């Protein structure tokens, strides 16, 4: 297999684009796609300060690397959830990337640990057991909360995550299968900043598949943690991804058509009703009575979860 651009030996075939690339051409392709995503969804400009949430996995570290290579002003946040073994290994990958790659570009790494939060005890699993919730959902609440809080306190303009096309298509499939209208309304590569306390949220990798990002990471020697979080085993998202991968193998471009078709419809419906996501957020969000982070309820989901854990621990 030869690269369609320069005829060198190809490292990756891209059936959905009916093409193949060598290492350097793949790198150029991926960076161009990310830049296109940033422009098309008006995510941020070179003047903005960006905070990337990193987990030590390929997507978030690749996103950090690409934004640095594209010359953006970006720092990273890692939340240590105290998952035995896994957290140490992911923490180490993140620290190493910061030291070997990011620091030379003037980019810094911010670290938050669950243990530092009052009431969280010994990691997310114990917390989830206490309040009888699936670990992944407790973990999601903590990560979202810390991400919002750190972005706000440090005046970041934009919060970026490494969600890719596979993640977004799987999430869309789940939302459609269960007809979760409220989630469908808020599923977007760009969520505008809302009332004081919420920065804008973006997903610059939404045009890239997991496979393309993994190939980019290997070609560019990004040392990431390959293992999945042990708590994610059996999660619904993995089933949806598997189903979509089977459809993709039969008919290349399925994920792409599914997710981009959705974005297209969403845009048209927003234009016809002149109803934007900012309207929704600003009408419903108020400061949490406990921590003053914005929330749709009186007390935010993080504070409610922590209060439940405290009561259960007594
Ligand atoms: Zn090439
Ligand atoms: Zn709160």
Any overview of this molecule?
The protein has 314 residues and is an alpha/beta fold. It has a single domain, classed as Rossmann fold. 50% of the residues lie in helices and 11% in strands. It is built from 12 helices and 10 strands. The strands form 3 sheets. A 6-stranded mixed sheet has the order 5-4-3-6-8-7, with helices on both faces. Strands 1-2 form a two-stranded antiparallel sheet. Strands 9-10 form a two-stranded antiparallel ribbon. The model has no long low-confidence stretch (mean pLDDT 90). It binds zinc ion (2 copies). One zinc ion (ZN) binds next to helix 1.
CATH level 4 superfamily: HUPs
What is the terminal separation in angstroms? 63 Å
How much of the sequence lies in strands comes to 5-15%
The overall pLDDT average reads 90
Q: Which hetero compounds are present in the coordinates? A: zinc ion
Can you tell me the CATH architecture?
3-Layer(aba) Sandwich
What best-fitting shape do the alpha-carbon axes yield? globular
Features:
Rossmann fold, six-stranded mixed β-sheet, two-stranded antiparallel sheet, binds zinc ion, 314 residues, globular, alpha/beta
In short:
With 314 residues, the chain is α/β, with parallel strands linked by helices. It is 50% helix and 11% strand. The chain is built from twelve helices and ten strands.
